[in-house]
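Researcher: Checking consistency across runs. Here is Protein-glutamate methylesterase/protein-glutamine glutaminase again:
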Amino acid sequence: MIKALVVDDSALMRALIGDILNKDPGITVVGEAADPFEAREAIKALKPDVLTLDIEMPKMNGLTFLKNLMRLHPLPVVMVSTLTQHGADVTLEALELGAVDYVPKPSGGATAALVAYGELLREKVKVAAGANLQQRQALPSHPAFGVNPRKLEAILIGASTGGTEAVKRVLCQWPALMPPILVVQHIRPFFSSAFTRHLNSLTPLDVQELTKDTPIKPGQVWVAPGDRHMRLVRRSGALWAQAFDDEPVGRHRPAVDVLFSSAAETGCGRMLAMLLTGMGKDGAEGMVKLAAGGATNWVQDQASSVVWGMPRAAWEAGAASGQYSLDQLAAKALKLLAS
């Protein structure tokens, strides 16, 4: 049984989240707290397995509390944040500090929407409770050898739970001139723009959210927009990235399988695909197709994954030639591209 603690300054929100979580027979809400000081005492007394945590609270904001928590008493945390610009930026900061995942605050509306929200929240909490909490480490340095971006037509990256930090850690170790990079991260629409801006501010690469048909070029990173798929097509020999609306694949939009499968159809012998941390099996089927087309496929290893679901599915399907930590993935890609 997963023991959950709900931390939110709104009594109404605490009651709503508690009621949603208690509907799952595998979860019991052992307590609630209206501010971080109450939460600190509740953690000591109740020993929860996972927390849901609001960001804006009295006495101490959620980020300060989270930072202290992960330093002194690490616990899996699911952030519950507002769908605003500020909410998206702060949520990404919370993921940097060690939160496992996030959900937006429920906005009311139809019963069907609240039911779907409840299913999402319960799923996130259950996954977080079993997550591998990562120790934050400084980025390693790599030998300064030359990189030939023309050795690969594209690098494809797929990720889900824990992926915002995993993708960031890989990209931050690469120089400005790399082959075109395409990223599919399971993320909500409002948060994908904040995620893209954040990556662009941290890496020497040109990171943009894909909004229209675009020819891909070295030095560029294209991130799939939230709630839209991304695919590769070949036009007159050149590769183009497309964002498009279609039904979710395996409940995901964007879906990694859509990108990987489309890349396999373009002729993928000079492509590198990486499948990083995430729940479920999205990307495994597409990676099998990439392997059949001659692509180089790697997955993140279990020890460094927050959730070893998607990488495991691809590995067990025989679609990848190796499994590595994030730092090893970044370094191996540079060696592959060494001129």
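Researcher: Does this match what you'd expect to see?
Model: One thing to look at in this run: Residues 2-129 form a domain with the Rossmann fold fold (CATH 3.40.50.2300).
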